[in-house]
Amino acid sequence: MDCAGKKLFIKALLEEKTDTVFAYPGGTVTDLFDELYKQDKIHVVLPRHEQALVHEAEGYARATGKTGVCLVTSGPGATNTVTAIADAFYDSIPLVCFTGQVPLSLIGNDAFQEVDIVGMVRGITKYAVTVRDRKDLGKIIKMAFHIARTGKPGPVLIDLPKDIQTSSGPSEYPETVNIRGYKINENIHVGQLKKAFKLLNAAKKPIILAGGGVRIAGAENELRQFIEKTRIPLVTTVMGKGLISEDIRYYIGNCGMHGRYSANKAVSECDVLFSIGTRFNDRITGDLNEFAPKAKIIHIDIDTASISRNVVVDVPIVADAKMALEKMVEWGERRETGAWMNEIYAWEEENPLEMNRNKGMTPQMIMEHLNRNFEDGIFVTDVGQHQMWASQYLRLEGKKQFITSGGLGTMGFGFPAAVGAKIGAPDRPVVCITGDGGFQMNLQELATALVEGAPVIICLLNNYYLGMVRQMQQLFYGKRYEATCLRRRKTCPPQCKGPNENCPPYTPDFVRLAESYGGKGFRVTKEDEIDAALEQAKQNTESPTIIEFMIATDEIVLPMVKGGNPMSEMILSK
Questions:
Q1: Is residue 473 annotated as part of the catalytic site, yes or no?
Q2: Is 50 annotated in the active site?
Q3: Known catalytic residue at 162
Q4: What is the predicted pLDDT for the residue at 190?
Q5: Is the pLDDT of residue 334 over 90?
Q6: Which of 162, 296, 322, 422 is labelled catalytic?
Q7: How crowded is residue 460: how many other Cβ atoms within 10 Å of its Cβ?
């Protein structure tokens, strides 16, 4: 029995248990939207921009563990998704993105709103294809969902010409698919794992370094069991934050460019580094020649290409993190790590992670109040200084979850991802921690939050600057603040060294902006106002709330390692 491609599209989504599609209409996908209108099992979310649309699908996927599904039109609709698709690729988020395309007969003719989106995204997707034969549609959609969610997850893009959507063809949707050349590694090389154990058992100063791959594998519980059984201390990447409750004694904290002093020292001084689910990017390693210079390195990752790409390792193990950790828990034995832990504690006492409390409200204070006010919240950050302060000072005990843009570092990610997370987890509080720069990149999603009944609490740290770049200008570029002051106007002097009494007012007024979108807004200038503002935000269950926290312009994120320097060379003070 045959049916139109658009009907098979709906059938495929239902077979894949899709309950939400983030979609923006246009000429080449109107037929698909018409079919979506005729059914009531899939909820269609209409964002206000296609980049935000994909970020919302990311937030939904991260909060629920499901595959995010996107639908946009051809041309600018497709190209607007590229940045967010890249973000999902670098953070291994399962997405299936459908793009409309001009009819097959017009492809290559520079038709209206025609672009080669498949060619554009080949390097930032696991798979991208234009459907050129209606009979292949069901198989290709099945392949897309399978590829997106298996192995190392990631985004897949299917380009659907308009005539494929309307043409008649087979109505069957396959239950399984066999993809030549795509094989999931479901085995563990026991010999390599035994080598790793031999190194760990001989180590006097072992460290576990865990990244986001542990969360993707659903191996948080196994990691906790292994640490509690062996008493080996743990450090995490920013993407690994929240893998383990932070009140566990053997958790040291984040390492890397803005990691804890004690965590970076532990990595620099360890004799065995057991890494799992991280690809050793430059924000973690710094100078590769000086990374963990005294250590034998073990690396477990599901992606063969990630092993020894940046850091040459002594024991490579290609495996799923959960399967590997299950075996590690089975073999693990209690280690005597007391002296090593005392050494790490001494580093923590030498340079604790603490901001000056004598200069008014600080980002640390804001995070501490968030810790006390939310027991099971989903915290979603944008990218910048506020992201690093959140990674340093948020405590993720219990059911709390941390969502951030790690690999690509995409400004504008935070708020739409928070909206998507709230749509996916409506019964959990969702807090977006953002900056005045990043928020303005996708603030139009206030409308989406309102119409979707997604009362996200937006904690906006306003320091009047693009803070992370300003910090580099302050430390390394002689305080030449070029293009980072968000109050700057044409009438300002050409070379400004920082805020003064002649500065123009800030634009926009975020409190009034929230109100203009049907939400609520509050401005907080002192620590004793924080709890009341958070309580008012929690009481507003109908619309988004912006809490604008006015923080000092010159606050910087410390510790900091200058790019390319060894992680042992940390800047500890201004």
A1: no
A2: yes
A3: yes
A4: 87
A5: no
A6: 162
A7: 27
